[in-house]
Amino acid sequence: MDIHQIPFRDNSFDVILCNHVLEHVEDDIHAMKELYRVLKKGGWAIMQVPFMGKNLAETFEDPTIKDSVTREKKYGQRDHVRIYGKDFPQRLENAGFTVKQDQYVMHMGLDRIKKHALPSDEIIYYCSK
Fold first, then answer.
1. What is the value of pTM for the model shown?
2. What is the pLDDT of residue 53?
3. Would you call 26 helix, strand, or coil by DSSP?
């Protein structure tokens, strides 16, 4: 399905998991609004994206970059179209979500983090409607 035009009615889902998708789509803001639209009131979503630019204040995207070689150089992967910055939660909130940044992983012991091969600095973006 095209995340820009989700083929479901408003308020269809109790839970949405969107894991490493938004960095691939042309209009992530529109996609976020679509996800919000199909989430039921009282529903929740986990929205995860890679953070290669952890020190970026704002998301970096350049729609003029079309070739895969340049995308790989700029975004770290040939099929990515942006690198999210610290403004990611604000972008989700602008789409309508209430966002909680959960640092659950950072409070786990190192043994458990290694056992489950988790990024030790992962923030989970818990979004609700």
1. 0.91
2. 64
3. coil
